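seq:
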Amino acid sequence: MKSTINQTPIRSVIFVVIGSAFIAACTVLAKIAQSDIFGDPLHPLQVAQGRFMFAFIAVAFVTPLLRPEFTKPSLVIHSVRTICGYSAVSLLFAAAAIIPVSDATAIKFLNPVFAMFFALPILREKIGPLRWIAALIGLAGSMILIRPTAGSFEPAALMALTASVAAGLEMILIKILTGRESPIQILLINNAIGLFLSSIALIAVWDTPTTGQWFVLAAIGFLMVIGQAFNLQAFKRADATFVLPFSYSTLIFVTIYDFSVFSVVPDLVSYLGSAVIVFGAFLLTLPEIRKSKLVL
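struct:
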């Protein structure tokens, strides 16, 4: 059988880069919502609720048009997965409002490392020496960005690290769900549960958004769904191991966006920590790349 990598690799790269641009925009928009640009800053939990609300509206609108075949959902797995995703989104948005968005995004890229750890007890996967080395390199990169010294310690970076742990567990649960249910069913249920949970949490922090903030929240939800759709198309047309490294273009986009809106310029430590994390994440994909006989 002919590999999908040999069919449309360039198109896959284009799709994942476009998807990364949209997803990067969501993180920067979350920072805008938590600033005073359009009014009093919104709480991270309110921004996360807006993300789920408008994403659910988008998916609910598209679902009847696609007419997917629904199967019996694994509600327990869906619920745990959504709790992890909601926690990751809330913590990432909170961290991005305090530290450079590029730092928060880079730390978030540790989720494959933590997914590897969770794969041991949950999926009973065997982890080779190269992957353990890659995990340690990635964690070293996160320590660089956290800046664990008395004068430069960044507590907000720990929020991004916790978000990465939650996202790592979410990746494992998504892997289980994709083997049982269709992507549109997974998206619909995920955003429905996420909207329910985030709306409950919102009660304690609700503040009426301004018109500008409503537009920002809507943009976060809609752009997130668009970004995920582009990524799904990319993974359809090529192996995940071929596509994944190009998702790190997100770091480029968030750096550009953060500079354009907030005039934030990453320092040398940010560049170094980000580079170490990306290198470690790339090593995680190397064994599969070799299996796929891709030219490096």
